[in-house]
Give the backbone structure.
Amino acid sequence: MCTELQARLAGIPLIDHHVHGPLRGHVTRAEFEALITESDRPVPPPWMTQFDSQIGFAVRRHRAPLLGLAEQASVEGYWAARGEWSMEDAAREATTVGRGNAARVYGLSDD
């Protein structure tokens, strides 16, 4: 690959363009976990949750700091902090430059 192309590609933030619309109301933890995976298969062992999967690790890694938590907050801590937000605030935070600047964090804003 030529150096010029490498330089141009290095300057482009990677964005996952596959997104779902915001939730319209509160959901249970089980409902939330069903929504964070695209899989139609149940989690193999009965003791495991979606938070124990790669997507669960990523949700906590990227979303927990926006809730004022450490990147690898406990599942219980993450779920409790998330539950303190209204659905409107959570949607606004995920789609605009809100109090955690999610749009900037995810490369959706130049700020």
